[in-house]
Amino acid sequence: MTSTSAAPRDAGTPPRGGSHALMTGSGAAETRLPWWHLAMTAGIALVVSAVILLLLGVFSIPALVLLGYVLHLIIGYTYSRVREGRRWAMDRFVTLLVFGAFAVAMIPLFSLLWEVLSRGIHKLITPAPLQFWTTDMAGVIGGMDAGGISHAIVGTLLITLGATLISVPIGLFTSIFLVEYARYGWQKVLGRGITFLVDVMTGIPSIVAGLFGLALFITITKDPGIRIGFMGSVALSVLMIPTVVRSSEEMLRLVPMELREAAYGLGVPKWLTIVRVVLRTAIAGLTTAVTLAIARVIGETAPLLLTVGSVPMLNTNLFSGRMQTLPTFINSQYGAGNAVCNSDVMTNPISGIDYACSTSINFDRAWAAALTLIIIVMVLNIAARLVSYFFSPKLGR
Amino acid sequence: MSSSVATPSSPQQDPPAPAAPTTTAARTAKRPGDVIFSGLSIGSGLLIFLTLALVFIFLLIRSWPAIQTSRELTGNADAVSLVQYVAPLVYGTVLAALLALLMAVPIAVGIALFISHFAPRSLATPLGFLIDLLAAVPSVVFGLWGGVWLVPRLEPLFFFLNEHLGWIPLFGGTVSAPMRNMASASVVLAVMILPIITAVTREIFLQTPRLQEEAALALGATRWETIKTVVLPFGRSGVVSASMLGLGRALGETMAVLMVLSPGETFSLRILQVGQHNTIAANIASHSAEATPDVMARLIFTGLVLFVFTFIINAIARAIVSRTTKS
What we know:
By secondary structure, chain A is mainly alpha-helical.
């Protein structure tokens, strides 16, 4: 009964906080140690692992953290087992494991963001800021320290725009059907089937979507070598439609029934109610949904690899000729690997300008393009959240 | 904008009182606006069915030449053996996905528990957002990161595993420096499927009946005992279906494998050895650029196999999810 004083203090906290209070209260029969015992065992584990690593001569910070974590699992468990008993020792052990799982997941996230930023920023600001975004790859050969991704940025934006123009009407009308029409009888059955298929469709591998675009256009045009931007748009829309449907369905379901009933009560036809009341109310959420769907497909690589090919110059025609996109550009630059430099100066055969030669230029371009792509995706994500934050109607009071 | 939308409906824009009789009349006659709108909605819904059917049909049409001329059907020894071509790819695909799953599921369940039950309430949403951020990273960037950053850093671990645990077939074989092997590829895959598994598992864990949890705590259970006796049994089917969704993702992921793995076509178990495996998706991506129509037909056939596989797995997973969330 030592810790019962904690319970009334925490009584006013929300449910999850309340459970902590209950838990500490329940351990009253056993000894519960304050938090600094945990810090102490962690400190011991770190010191021990540092000593071991120094003795082995393989000291490094990652190794210290890793070994320290493992040792802390053992030391902390043993200590707690002796002082607090088996059940609480197990609890501490699992808590530590769960925190470790989260920390492990943060390694790829932060290392990836850091690598892309630190390796990509150089090419974006040299030789002149944004020159990389405003030039294309025409005449760039070997290890020539030149070239840019203007054609790839434009290509990515155009193809994604095409996919959006296909997916948004279909996706929006499908979600309207699911929310507004699929209420009784055969329509309800159909609605359930569609919901299920849309869910399954979200799991279609992107490469299969690309093959579909390819197979569709080869069959229609009878030209096995056809590669045009619009094929990419069609392939991407296969991936985009399900995300648009799911998220806009959620947004439409948030519109209160009373608004619709008020409109019906005034004699407004159903379709006009949907356009003027339901969509009007949900417009912010729908914008968010569409933006997030765009952000999802704008980085897709595999379908574009199959359907739009690649080209070193700007092509703004979605319906004729190959196009370059950012993801496939990253892939091809990465695939090209290190360049060979036979001389220090290389001349662009088209413009006649001399450039320095760099062996790592392909990787530099890949990282800079990756940074550009990540910036685009993050801007879309942030824009989506800002729209939903500022423009969503305040329904609750 | 709204006025242009309203113009076609101007007959219905009369003040409410006189509109009432026309409404009842129109209920039987159906307004043209309503007919068009519901038609569009139902049409779009049906288009979803159509799209999935079309994916299957067009892949089948384009891969038909490969099926027709395969040795299995014609009995001709000179013909291409489709099964021999597809089997190692299917093996590699399944192996990569299972390895990724093996690494991702325990961590994802841990993260889901962390966010739903361990982290302070106020931190849960931002921490969940961090995991979602991982899902927003394009796959090609994961491939680049995996190929350039991760592969050299996994080297010491793989050498260690090969040296000390080499007697396990999985870690056996000859291991050489650029670790462009199955193990590296599946580590990248595991990172990529982590967000989806975490998201679904977290949703299920958060649906655990509060009263049961509080009952367990009131009986004196520790947090872990509560999770073991209440949360995990409740969320078991959710974890299973989340894993299957992750499996579906891992089976179809192209870029991570294409950019990290150096391909081969054996049935080897040695995941640390280079040039042993390849996956369907990566194989399609690497060969499609310079494929003759014959090769293309075969590639499309492997794509069809992948589509059917992932479709079935996703269908089962979604069926489990919808059943558990309903009850």
